[in-house]
Amino acid sequence: MAEVISVAELNSRVSELFSKSPNLNDIWVSGEISGLKKYPSGYYFVLKDSSSAINSAMFKSALGRLNFEPTENMKIRAFGRVGLYVPQGRYQFIVEVMEKSGLGDRYLAFEALKKKLDEEGLFDPSHKRKLPLYPRRIGVVTSQSGAVIHDIITTSASRYTADILLAPAMVQGDGAAESIVAGIQLLNKAGVDVIIVGRGGGSIEDLWAFNEEIVARAIYNSKVPIVSAVGHETDFTIADFVADVRAPTPTGAAAIILRDKSEIRSELQSYTTRLNRAMSAVLEGMKHSFDILDSRLGPQKALDDLNLRSMMLEDLSKTADSSLMAALNAVKMQYNALDARLMPSRALEDIDSLRETVEASLDRIKLGSKHLMEMESSRFDTIADRPEKAITTIVKQATDALASDSKQLEGLNPSNVLTRGYSMVTDRTGKVLTSVEKINVGDSIVIRLRDGNAEAGITKKEMKK
Amino acid sequence: MTDYAEEVEKMSFEDSIKALEDLVKELEAGGIDLDRSIEIYEKAVILRNHCRKILDESERRIEKIMESSGVQKTEEFKLD
Q1: pLDDT digit string (tens) for A138-158?
Q2: Least CB–CB distance from A150: residue in B37, B59, B79
Q3: Contact of A148 with A200, CB cutoff 8 Å
Q4: Which of A118, A135, A347, B73 is the residue whose CA sits 20 to 30 A from A271?
Q5: Residue B58: closest C-alpha in chain A
């Protein structure tokens, strides 16, 4: 009878056969990962290609050699051996080293999805929404432990102030795409002005979640504008094509969304400058109007006054001081007052006003005259009061002088001479005769003596030689 | 103008700076009377001061939001 062996012995022999076969050891196998399960003891999956499949395992001891994270449907090259799992008599490929085999398939998948979504209009520029200029709240969908949120928080600190609301998400590995979609939807519900969806740099596999269709659609359907910031500047994902704006990096996203504060300050300053320049132009125009008004109204003083005010206003306007308001109102009133005098519709008011002015002036003149007269009167009083004594003196002096002259005249009285023996000869009319020339022979003359007159006739005339 | 200042106080930064820009353009365009010019000037200064105040005085909140069983929860977020 032939030898009877146990099942375990059989599997042992197969196992030994496998291990001794050079064709089954230290070989490279290429295929695609399927049914990937990750356990603490290792990764278990089916390695397959289009026509066949083999159970595969990568034990914990080998996982440390991985420089990427295997994912479902990933095309790989695996180095290892065929072994038998004795308890179940199943053979499997035991992976010692795993490498990504070319990006061919992935690239094709990427291109295919891109083409599909493009044709659907998901990248259509007309669908791109404008970012708010000054968002008050920014949503961020990313890992809460990565560099992305850190970069966004620190970069935005010096920029226009906005709240930041993080929706933590897995950004790679299984479920990453679903997690990102959930974050976008949650932030839409929570109410933000713009959303950054991002993650830091990595391999194309690391970034793959951002090439998933569900992420693309969630971005497209978001009510809030979305900025993508995935990987490095050279990485382009489907998410970048769908997003309203693609930022090269997370730091770049913060800079795109929030304006620099000093830039905004210069803009405000520029508005202030323009405002003052425009106001100065208005004032200049006003000054011109004043000049015209003045040339029609005449009073130089008004012009000087207005010019002065205008200059003051210009100075003030340069500093944009709030006190300008008061000054402006002052010049406005001045202007209105002048204007009103030229407005035909206000002519009546104008005349009334002028009449009042004239009446006021007249009153002032009357008042002034009265005052002047009173003043003059009192001046006369003063003068009259003072020279009274002088005049009295003058009159007295005159009287004295007269008395003196009177005595002298007394001596000259002809009557007095006659008493001293002289006589006076007159014609018959009483006219004193002082020369023989006027006397002719035959004339009658009157001789006046002290006590009477005697008439005589001229008998002879003789001139002195 | 006090009324306008109260109105502006409630305005967003974006609306304020837009309103400021519009006023500056209107004044620059000219052809308006003195009353309107002064009104524009006064309003523009109020708007500019409001914008400056927002720039200088605003503080931000940094939070994270999570949702479980349809309930949203927001809490302060601090960098590690």
Answers
A1: 999 999 988 899 999 999 998
A2: B79
A3: yes
A4: A135
A5: A161
